Amino acid sequence: MSYDDSNIFAKILRGEIPCHRVYEDADTLAFMDVMPQSPGHLLVIPKTPSRNILDADPATLSKVIPIVQKLANAAKEAFDADGITVTQFNEPAAGQTVYHLHFHIIPRYEGASLKPHTGQMEDHGVLAANAKKVVDALGA
Ligand code: 5GP
Fold this sequence. Notes:
With 140 residues, the protein is an alpha+beta fold.
């Protein structure tokens, strides 16, 4: 399957739809997931298009993974999490629903299970407040 630039993350990258942005550099964007599986669930995407990890240029991966690490540490601090789950799905059979490579960063707590993947839409005020927590943790 080839990359289709009508996907929702391509629209976010083009500024056609808004997001609660927490981090951006020349190669990478990170923003809050609108249907969080846990408070503070965020997404890290490379700006270079690929459908998922299967067709990504290794040079793109080498730029995005350090940012995944940076945001994982920021989210752990911002939400006082016990741990962080990083997930990344490839093709529908694996659970992928948006076809622009992305990494999920999900704060975890001892004994707490996750809400469903692509479950309930979060209130935008909550997403904005959580985005600020991540930005503050990055700046600390
Ligand atoms: P996937 O299933 O492809 O791994 O993950 C796609 C993720 O994107 C899901 O967790 C879903 O909640 C999130 N998502 C879907 N539409 C939007 C949107 O318009 N904005 C944001 N910020 N996240 C979205």
